Amino acid sequence: MASRQNALLERFYTALISGDRAGARDVMDTVFSADAEGEQVAAHLVWPVLDQVQKAYRHDQLSKLSYHYATRMLRSITDQLQIRYAQKARRDETVLLVCGAEESEELAGQLAADLLEADGYTVYFTGGGIANDEIVAQLAELQAQKLVVFGAIPPTVPQTRQLIDRLHDIGACPNLQIIVGGGVFNRAEGLAEEIGADLWALDPIELVEVMDEEPQRRMTPDQRTVGRRRRQPTKSRQAA
After folding, report:
1. Looking at the predicted structure, is the pLDDT value of residue 145 above 90?
2. What span, in angstroms and rounded, lies between the C-alpha atoms of 195 and 119?
3. pLDDT recorded at residue 1
4. Contacts of 50 (CB under 8 A, 6+ apart)
5. Does 215 share its domain with 121?
6. Alpha-carbon gap, residue 148 to 99, rounded angstroms
7. 233 located within any domain
8. Residues 121, 124: Cα–Cα separation, whole Å
9. Same structural domain for residues 218 and 115?
């Protein structure tokens, strides 16, 4: 079973980076003909391949042409995948979701936004490149309960840190829960804790899980750390 899944992932990845639209559609037809649920496709096909594309491009193992081929096709597939998610009962909770400005990070953010919306949240997805002033104002206007920063890139980490500090300093949305994940947060141990995030997750599927499991978790000022070793991955990526 594992070898079959790996072969499917490789086939999908190859189709995407070579711009083979028909080949990518054939892979999607294969998984849906097997009655795979939308969430399963997101977790075991779309996200792993997106992560592979990001890593290959970041390490100069993928040309810009191939990167564009892959991200453009994955965007179209993610759009179509949304309608296949099981829609849960609506929650009385609003999420503002921001991300890095790169194409692959916005794609990861969209995947996270779609899954959270299917899980019952009211989601506002800004994409990347939004100034902190606008984010703070929008949080206040929406009276959002959750701020999700998913798919940040290294140059945006100082901005994210400043945003969290500002929200705490001015007391805007005092009950706001701040969740981070993906992107640079997956590569830098302890970074989520250091900047004062309440929760963190490695991927969009886990993001939904930790938000469901720890809705009341908040980081206290004395729990913000610099350089404390991040715990080994567990099902729940809560800040301790």
Report:
1. yes
2. 27
3. 54
4. 74, 104, 107, 108, 111
5. yes
6. 8
7. no
8. 10
9. yes
Quick one: pLDDT at residue 230?
A: 37
Ramachandran region, residue 183 (left: φ > 0; alpha: ψ -120 to 50; beta: rest): left
Q: Between 2-17 and 21-33, two packed helices, what is the crossing angle to 10 degrees?
A: 150
The distance from CA 187 to its chain's CA centroid, rounded to whole angstroms, is: 14
Chain segment 16-41, per-residue pLDDT in tens: 999 999 999 999 999 999 998 999 99
pLDDT value for 223: 59
Position 71 pLDDT exceeds 70 = yes
Q: Tell me 100's DSSP state.
A: -
Q: Show the tokens assigned to 87.
A: 């829609």
Chain centroid, CA 226 distance in Å: 24
Handedness of CA 171, 175, 181, 186 (dihedral sign): positive
Q: Residue 30: which domain range? A: 2-84
Q: What is the CATH number of the domain that holds 119?
A: 3.40.50.280
For the segment 40-54, the average pLDDT, to the nearest whole number, is 95
Query: Which of 174, 224, 223, 177 minimizes the C-alpha distance to 201?
Result: 177
Token pair listed for 165: 């500090």
Task: Copy the structure tokens of residue 17.
Answer: 């980076």
The pTM assigned to this predicted structure is: 0.87
